[in-house]
Structures are given as C-alpha cells and as structure tokens.
Amino acid sequence: MPLPRLLLALSVALAACAAEPAPDLPDAPERAVMQPPDFPRLGAALPAGHTAYENASLARLFVVLAHETEWGAARPHLVRYEAPVSVALEGEGAGAYAPFLDGFLEELRAETGIRIARGAPANLLVRFVEGRRFDSVLRTAYCVTAQGDASWQGFAADPTGRSARALAGARSIEAMTVFIPDDAPPYLVRNCLLEEIPQALGLANDLYGLGNSSFNDDGAHLWPTKLDHLMLRVLYAPELATGLDRRTTQTQAGAVLDRVNPEGIGAPPLPLLNRRALGAWPDLMTAVFSRGVSESQTRELAAKALTVVEAHAPGSAQHCHTLVTAGRILSRREPERALRLFDRAGTVCDAAHGESDIRHARIALERACALARLGRTAEVLAIAEATWPVLAAHGQDERLAALYTIQADVLAETGPGGPQAASLARLTAEWNAYALGPGRRAADCRPDA
Questions:
Q1: Which of 179, 170, 154 lies closest to 6 in space, CA to CA?
Q2: Of 9, 76, 275, 322, whose CB count within 10 A is highest?
Q3: Which residues contact 337 (CB under 8 A, 6 or more apart)?
Q4: CA 289 to CA 7: how far, in whole Å?
Q5: Local structure of 88: helix, strand or coil
Q6: What is the pLDDT of residue 444?
Q7: Which of 37, 58, 365, 60 lies closest to 220, judged by CA?
Q8: What own/partner pairs with CB < 8 Å and gap ≥ 24 does 129-137 have?
Q9: Whole-angstrom Cα distance, residue 201 to residue 410?
Q10: pLDDT of amino acid 163
Q11: Is 317 within 8 Å of 300 (Cβ atoms)?
Q12: What letter would DSSP give residue 268?
C-alpha cells in the first residue's frame, strides 16, 4: 500500500470545507496569530461523546487501535513510551504554536494521566520543514510521523522505511518525530498536532465507523474525544507495558477498563464497526484528497468512490463520508445536485452516527455554501445562526472561518450595513487570520464566484 494512505485521515480532515478538496499550500511560511478573544470559546464543549459502552467491547477496540495500523499492518507487540514524554517544537515558525501545544498537552495530562509536557531532552519532536522540501517527498501529505529522533534529510532518503509504519514490528518507543511543512496554514498545523501526537504515543490506527473519536478516517472530530482519552488512559495504565502480545493486551485492557470505566460494566457493547472489504474505495478516496489533482479528475474519482461504497457498504460511515465529499466537489459547478447529495448524506450520517453528531454541522456548512451559490440568502443565514456554536464547541476553527465568510458575503450583498455588518466583517477577518493566516480568506461561495 502506498505511503500516502498513512495520511488519508488527515487529508480528509483538512480539505477546504466550502470548496474543492485540498488546495496547494502557499509558498511562504504562514505566521500563526492568536485566537480571537471574542466568544465563541473554541472547543468549549469538548470532549464529545461518552464512554458508557461495555468494557469487553472497548477492550476489543483498544486492541484494534494498539495492535493494528491504518495501512493494514499488524503490530505483534504493544508499544508505548515508558519514560515521561518531553515534546520539542523546532524549525521556522514553530514557536508561534507553543501556546496551543501547551494547552493541548495539559489536556492530555489531565484526561489520560500520561506524563507529557514540553521540555528537554525531548523524545517526541515536532519539526517544521521547508515546505518545498516536504512537498518534494510527500506530495499528498500534510504532515507525517517518523520513528526515532529523525532528521528530515534522513527521513527523505527512505520515507517508507523510516515512517511510522516501521513501528509495526517494533518492541518499544524511544522517540518519535512529527514533520510539518512550514508553509502549512495555521489550522493545518494545529490539526497535525492534534492528530499526530496521540498516534505517536502508541495508538496508530484510524477506523471508519468509530463515530465519536478522532481515530476516525473521516476527520470529523479534530480534538480527542472522551473515548480517545479513555483509550490513551488504558494504554498508559500500570497494568499494561511495552511488549505485550495481542491476547495479553486484551485481557489487561479489560481489567483496566473495569477499574477506570465502571459505567462500562454491564453496559451495551460498542456498535460493531463496518470493516467490510471496500475494494478500491480507500485508494480512490486517498486520490480525491491528493494535492495537485485536477477538478475533472477529482469529480471522476469521487463518482467512482460513491459507486463502490454504495455497492459494498450502503448506509455505512464510509457512505456518509463519500456523499459529503462528492457533494462538496460538485457544489461549485452543480449546486442543486450537490444539495441533493447533502440531503442523502444527512439521512445516512444520522443512521451511521446519530442525529447529534458533529458531521451534521459539517453538512450544514456545505449546504450553506451551495445555497449561497444559488442566491438562497434566508436559508444561508438560518444555517449560519444554528451552526456556528456547534463548530466552535468542537474546535473547528477553519470551518468556523468558512461559515463566517459565507454569512458575511451574503449580508454584504443583500443586507443593510450598520454595526451588525461591521461586527461580522471584523469577526470574519479575525477567524480567517487565525485559521488560514494573515491576509488569507476562506473559499468564496458567492453565486458569481
């Protein structure tokens, strides 16, 4: 399986919400700005979901996350850090993300019990790499995790052998390195930190169908949820240790869960994941979100992916994700057709994930963009009013910036000016700068764009 599959989950999560998938990154390094001080408080409702599932089913899930990988390899041995985890930020522009990283690491410590903080000597290194150098090796990726204290030069010489997949046969973690291109927009950098650090800690898998989790290949949840915190707490519990085989891991994980998750004793099991073979679907979706793919190629790939998933797994989490993706791709040229796909996506996603799932807010954002292109102003404004609190509560800063941009554009064209319009214009500019970088703006959804 090609290396880009490693980044499928992240590339799905990082595609532009109201536009075509994954634009090329800018040439110059982006400079992060502080989060806007006004309400909403980003991430205020996190973590999402609950952990009141049967502990035996959670133990089985833990084994899948810890002993399997998203690229298909099995890990015969449990791996984790046995020493405290010291994190370093290195490279051009890295220091701007220190406050965000410190807050995230504080959350991990509080919710999982893992001894992790920024410090030296570091054994988890986040290294910013010149964007052009990164792009020349990993054209379809936005960031990547490598085994050991790795230099970019060493990784680039053998990306497959030195990537996280080399850990499949490892018996321990002594150090890990996360590489991020220095020209990535700020939201991509933050999402890379949220995605790659938990995986570097030892849970290397992503699963479609694991709804309330950031270990899900559709990238709906960017921040770790309650379920993710529980899985990491199990991994670093004293009952587990580096080197355990799969069977022992499951036995010990069950014992830990009975201790730390009493609500799971006698509870209903975690719903079974749809892990049915999907033929070419994973590779098609990887290609859809690859940078440098033309619009016509993207449309063709998405159509093929939808055909495959409807044949193999109708009504599944994969089906939900494919409908949203296909609708987004069609939205600019065929907004009416895109709306029909979003309507279907709402029904499928409701059945696969539940009516309160974050994916419905993401579908609402895509609908708002298509409706704006059709000039259906009142519907756009109603969606914006109902959706921004959900996106803010789930820490979706790039999507929040996109929604504010759509709302501001609609009001600028159809509504009166005044204090409300001026306030919204300021809010839109601030959130675009926070998510995309100074002077940058979310994709345009106006009818003539």
A1: 179
A2: 322
A3: 330
A4: 10
A5: strand
A6: 85
A7: 365
A8: 129/91, 129/179, 129/180, 129/181, 129/182, 130/92, 130/181, 130/182, 130/183, 131/25, 131/26, 131/27, 131/29, 131/181, 131/182, 131/183, 131/184, 132/27, 134/179, 134/180, 134/181, 135/25, 135/181
A9: 44
A10: 65
A11: no
A12: P
pLDDT for the residue 304: 96
**d(Cα 268, Cα 56) in Å, to the nearest integer?**
10
Element (DSSP H or E) covering residue 255: helix 246-260
Alpha helices (H) along 113-158: 131-137, 152-157
* pTM as predicted: 0.88
Residue 157 class from Cβ within 10 Å (0-12 exposed, 13-18 middle, 19+ buried)? exposed
Joined together, the tokens standing for residue 305 give 């992916």
Q: What is the pLDDT of residue 32?
A: 74
In the numeric block, which tokens belong to residue 218? 């559709």
Supply 448's token pair. Answer: 């003539």
Residue environment code for 412-446, b if the CB has 16+ CB neighbours within 10 A, otherwise e? eeeeeeeeeeeebeebbbbbbbbbbbeeebbbbbe
**CA atoms of 390 and 42, how far apart (whole Å):** 10
